[in-house]
């Protein structure tokens, strides 16, 4: 592992962390390209890799058509690739359907759920293949889930030989141990990986308590700590509309009390978070550097963080990136 | 896995719309009414009286209809530019993000720091406005509470030292309130904006219900001078005030009216929350601009009809050029403009109270909002390692950005001192200049959008290549047009030394500090990091190849 002297400290590990790609193909490709630009030892993709939207593409005679942003997109059959690229760039899954299939999707929620699940799993497979093809074998690639990721996709990553998927586990990063957790406190959306703060505390303690007191630890927890500015999100009313106060959307902290307490208790070197896309930032809680690189996946922009760690278990330097 | 019951874009037509999974964070629910509310709440409506007054003082032969319309046209052009920027970068951001993403990360960082300093300067000038209006507030309060002690105090707080002291008090009040919870601050801002709007509406009613002779006799009574109205016009004539109107004056005054609309496009700052951002933003901005043109145009028409343009021209100029002569005729504050007219026309104590406190309260509301925005800009700089990370540190107890607030208040206090004691220039002109520069940043970002980041602009895949090229050209034209209009505004300010004031060493140094802080801090931060062998700052915004 290449290291360099920085004052009296020696860098032993460089991480590149990005999160909340939500199915954006272009962002995932940039994530892999980040290995060449930032020269990390480990690439870490935090939770919420799965896309949010599925766009039916209907065949009409000699053309394909889809409706996006209120616009009718129509291309000749031969140009399907262009249409597909436009849709996947935004993190949506294009699905070719007939008029009958579309009717069924409109009326059958279970069918739609299955289709979503299939698309997410297929994308997970494609991404694992891309990692194998493109990533320098000396660089580790770690992907962990977030609350928006279906549990059904876990097995795809777990089966990969190239991608590591240490969900709810502590993995070894040389002199450091990294604990990963995709669960978040309850949200208004009732997603797949949510629990109460008490349960979250229990899950965290189960992972971290066995570590020795002098272990140099990194947290990769999807939920940011409560009231850390890494967790500022619009306050929503009962209909999920943003609450407006004083002419502005009211912003409230939505992070986890349990995560904050765990950071205080275990004082890891670095805590990596995501979940709240607009709360890109850095905060120190005690000795811990907490980072949420934010997400701008819908613009095709990869936001991330480069973190240099020293052999004495301290954080040497960091940089939030936009690429 | 649950899917939502609604398609985000509807299911009209034969082709299905987008199916959305039930996932966290999909908000995008602010519609046109909410976006209009955000835009209008961001405009300090009572400040129009400051700008009417400053305009009449600098350009006596002005009429406000054309400048109000021209200001609206400039913002309409800018609105289209920001619409394309919002379409390309739908997340909340602002000029810093747009320039970083589209032109260059370095230019963005520089603009970000510049904007932070400009916003801090504007904080201080808002505090200065509040301080300058304190005499008017005290005389109003004296009248409401029938207290000669309060009314007399108005005459004691007009010196530079008092204005500086009062500006500081305003800054401290704003800082103290900013340290409260975000929710409480939002409620305070909302309350203050509401009071300001009520004052504005009451003033319209008072003016509409009065006649010219009502005003003449009210001024006579208030001034204890039976011919005060005519005496002010005559004294104005004697001191050489130019009456009537001229096109040249009306063109020259446009920058002040541009400043009037500042905030009207601010719904783009919450772009990520708007439902169908481009469309919602466009409609909301047009509605807001039209409402303001009608409202301000209507108020100006009322002022012309009830008070008369010659009187307003004479009062604004005599009060500024020869306050002794003016003071001998009346003790009505010459800079209070419409609020002052309302004050003497009404006998209702609640209306008087509203008029007396409207400007100071509005400035506190605007400053509270500005502190939030400025601290966020500082955060962004800290996260980009241009400023120390501890700038973004949040207090353990109050969860407020104490360090950033302290920096903003201390730097703002420094600007308060300069504004009070150093002849920097006409403050309104300087504010107009800075706002025009921010507008210029937006225009430049839009002008470069189609050539630098065409992939961010989708026209709908169905369009032909020729149609796409035409669309990209349109985006560039709108960006260039906004840039040209912003440059015109800047040129108008700088080319009229009678308004801006002749450049002095102090004003040049202040301009350099405000505009040059960005590049200097960027270069220092980069050099220090290179020396320490830290991560290279240029990596922070390195464009990653997707392939």
Give the helices and strands, then pairings:
The complex is a heterodimer of chains A (323) and B (547).
Chain A: E1 5-6, E2 9-18, H1 25-38, E3 42-45, E4 53-60, E5 63-68, E6 71-76, H2 80-89, E7 92-97, H3 99-107, H4 109-134, E8 140-143, H5 154-159, E9 163-164, E10 170-173, E11 176-181, E12 184-185, E13 194-195, H6 197-208, E14 217-221, E15 232-234, E16 244-245, E17 248-249, E18 251-253, H7 257-266, E19 270-272, E20 281-285, E21 288-292, E22 303-310, E23 315-322
Parallel strand pairs in A: 2-3, 3-8, 4-7, 8-9, 11-14, 12-13, 14-19, 19-21
Antiparallel strand pairs in A: 1-2, 2-22, 4-5, 5-6, 10-11, 15-18, 16-17, 20-21, 22-23
Helix pairs in contact in A: 1-4, 6-7
Chain B: E1 19-20, H1 32-41, H2 47-58, H3 65-88, H4 95-102, H5 105-132, H6 134-144, H7 148-156, H8 160-178, H9 182-208, H10 212-223, H11 228-238, H12 247-252, H13 254-260, H14 277-306, H15 309-321, H16 323-329, H17 337-345, H18 349-383, H19 402-421, H20 427-452, H21 465-495, H22 497-500, H23 505-531
Helix pairs in contact in B: 1-14, 2-13, 2-15, 3-13, 3-14, 3-20, 3-21, 4-5, 4-20, 5-8, 5-18, 5-19, 5-20, 5-23, 6-7, 6-18, 8-18, 8-19, 9-18, 11-15, 13-20, 15-16, 17-18, 20-21
Main attributes of the structure:
heterodimer, A: 323 residues, alpha/beta, 7-stranded mixed sheet, 6-stranded mixed sheet, 7 helices, 33% strand, disordered N terminus, B: 547 residues, mainly alpha
């Amino acid at each position: 592992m290449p290291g360099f002297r920085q004052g009296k400290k020696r860098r032993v590990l460089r991480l590149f962390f990005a999160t909340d790609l939500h199915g954006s193909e272009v962002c995932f490709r940039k994530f892999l390209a980040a290995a060449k630009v930032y020269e990390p030892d480990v690439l870490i993709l935090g939770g919420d890799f799965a896309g949010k939207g599925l766009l039916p593409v209907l065949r009409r005679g000699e053309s394909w058509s889809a409706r996006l942003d209120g616009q009718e997109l129509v291309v000749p059959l031969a140009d399907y690739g262009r249409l597909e690229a436009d849709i996947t760039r935004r993190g949506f899954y294009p699905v070719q359907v007939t008029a009958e299939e579309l009717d069924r999707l409109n009326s059958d929620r279970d069918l739609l759920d299955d289709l979503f699940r299939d698309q997410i799993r297929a994308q997970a497979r494609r991404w694992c293949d891309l990692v194998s093809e493109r990533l320098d074998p000396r660089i580790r690639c770690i992907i962990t889930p977030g609350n928006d990721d279906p549990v059904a996709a876990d097995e795809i990553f777990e089966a990969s030989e190239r991608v590591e998927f240490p969900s709810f586990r502590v993995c070894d990063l040389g002199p450091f141990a990294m604990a990963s957790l995709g669960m978040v406190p309850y949200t208004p959306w009732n997603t797949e990986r949510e629990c109460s703060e008490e349960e979250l505390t229990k899950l965290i303690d189960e992972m971290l308590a066995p570590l020795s007191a002098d272990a140099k630890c990194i947290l990769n927890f999807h939920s940011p700590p409560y009231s850390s500015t890494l967790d500022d999100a619009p306050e929503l009313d009962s209909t999920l509309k943003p609450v407006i106060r004083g002419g502005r959307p009211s912003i409230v902290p939505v992070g986890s009390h349990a995560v904050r307490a765990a950071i205080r208790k275990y004082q890891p070197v670095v805590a990596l978070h995501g979940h709240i896309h607009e709360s890109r930032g850095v905060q120190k809680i005690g000795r811990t550097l907490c980072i949420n690189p934010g997400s701008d996946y819908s613009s095709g922009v990869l936001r991330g963080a480069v973190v240099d760690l020293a052999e004495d278990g301290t954080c040497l330097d960091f940089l939030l990136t936009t690429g | 896995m649950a899917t939502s019951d609604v398609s985000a874009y509807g299911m009209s037509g034969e082709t299905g719309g987008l199916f959305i999974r039930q996932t966290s964070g999909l908000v995008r629910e602010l519609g046109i009414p909410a976006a209009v509310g955000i835009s209008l709440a961001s405009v300090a409506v009572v400040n129009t009286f400051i700008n009417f007054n400053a305009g009449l003082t600098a350009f006596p032969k002005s009429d406000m209809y054309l400048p109000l319309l021209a200001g609206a046209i400039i913002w309409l052009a800018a609105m289209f530019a920001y619409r394309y920027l919002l379409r390309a970068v739908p997340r909340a951001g602002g000029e810093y993000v747009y320039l970083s993403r589209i032109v260059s990360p370095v230019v963005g960082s520089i603009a970000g720091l510049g904007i932070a300093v400009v916003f801090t300067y504007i904080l201080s000038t808002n505090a200065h406005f509040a301080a300058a209006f304190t005499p008017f507030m005290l005389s109003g309060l004296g009248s409401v509470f029938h207290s000669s002690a309060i009314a007399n105090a108005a005459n004691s707080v007009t010196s530079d030292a008092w204005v500086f002291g009062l500006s500081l008090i305003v800054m401290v009040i704003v800082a103290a309130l900013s340290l409260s919870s975000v929710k409480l601050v939002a409620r305070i801002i909302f309350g203050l904006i509401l009071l300001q709007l009520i004052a504005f509406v009451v003033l319209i009613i008072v003016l509409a219900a009065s006649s010219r002779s009502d005003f003449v006799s009210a001024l006579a009574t208030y001034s204890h001078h039976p011919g005060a109205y005519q005496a002010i016009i005559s004294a104005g004539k004697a001191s050489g005030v130019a009456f009537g109107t001229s096109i040249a004056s009306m063109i020259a005054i446009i920058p002040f009216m541009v400043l009037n609309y500042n905030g009207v496009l601010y719904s783009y700052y919450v772009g990520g929350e708007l439902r169908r951002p481009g469309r919602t933003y466009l409609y909301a901005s047009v509605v807001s601009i039209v409402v303001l043109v009608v409202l301000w145009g209507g108020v100006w028409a009322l002022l012309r009809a009830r008070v008369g343009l010659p009187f307003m021209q004479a009062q604004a100029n005599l009060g500024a050029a020869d306050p002794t002569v003016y003071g001998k005729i009346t003790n009505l504050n010459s800079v209070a403009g419409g609020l002052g007219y309302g004050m003497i026309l009404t006998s209702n104590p609640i209306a008087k109270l509203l008029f007396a406190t409207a400007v100071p309260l509005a400035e506190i509301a605007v400053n509270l909002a500005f502190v939030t925005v400025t601290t966020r800009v500082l955060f962004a700089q800290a996260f980009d390692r241009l400023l120390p990370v501890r700038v973004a540190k949040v207090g353990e107890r109050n969860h407020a950005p104490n360090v950033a607030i302290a920096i903003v208040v201390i730097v703002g206090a420094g600007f308060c001192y300069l504004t009070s004691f150093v002849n920097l220039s006409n403050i309104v002109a300087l504010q107009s200049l800075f706002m025009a520069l921010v507008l210029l940043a937006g225009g430049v970002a839009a002008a470069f959008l189609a050539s630098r980041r065409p992939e961010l602009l989708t026209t709908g895949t169905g369009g032909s290549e020729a149609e796409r090229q035409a669309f990209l050209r349109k985006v560039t034209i709108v960006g260039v047009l906004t840039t040209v209009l912003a440059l015109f505004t800047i040129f108008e300010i700088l080319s009229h030394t009678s308004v801006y004031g002749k450049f002095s060493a102090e004003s040049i140094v202040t301009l350099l500090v405000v505009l040059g802080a960005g590049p200097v801090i960027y270069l220092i931060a980069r050099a220090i990091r290179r020396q320490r062998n830290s991560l290279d700052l240029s990596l922070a915004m390195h464009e990653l190849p997707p392939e």
